[in-house]
Fold this protein.
Amino acid sequence: MSQNHDAGVTALDLGVAEPLSERTKAYFAKCEEKLGLVPNVLLAYAFDEKKLDAFGNFYNDLMLAESELSKLDREIIAVVVSAINHCHYCLTAHGAAVRQLSGDPAFGEQIAQNWRAAGLDAKRIAMLDFVTKLTERPDTIVEADRQALRDAGFSNRGIFDIAAVAAFFAMSNRVASATDMKPNAEYHGMSR
């Protein structure tokens, strides 16, 4: 890992734990290998490896584990929540993932700017209506909202996964905004 990986990642400038464990070094090397970069969000948590592990484990479970939601669905949720919260870091990073997974740069931009104009199918519209309401007005979620998801074809487990991904990004958006987390510059040009 280069010495300046932690420079300017957040306004808090907490740096990276020294020395990093061999496990974390291997994790960062895997990121470099697969993504061509270490996401700044990981570097932002790397000042405390316990926090990094907690964040990474939860993220990986929500975004990569078995689910009826596709990886693209989960990234779309991340972008929609991040658009509502005006989170520059997450819009940039997860917008790149939507572009990559969909193979369509225009689709990625539509999701970030106005998902309702993206020509989505009824199932994704129901999913994002729920995500929007959960993000903007969580206290107004009622059984009819969950039933609308069931009617669109989601199981109760699917509904839980939708809620968990949306909630995770609501939290992540707030940490990124509070710390002025900077997205990796590479994200801006990915899958365009």
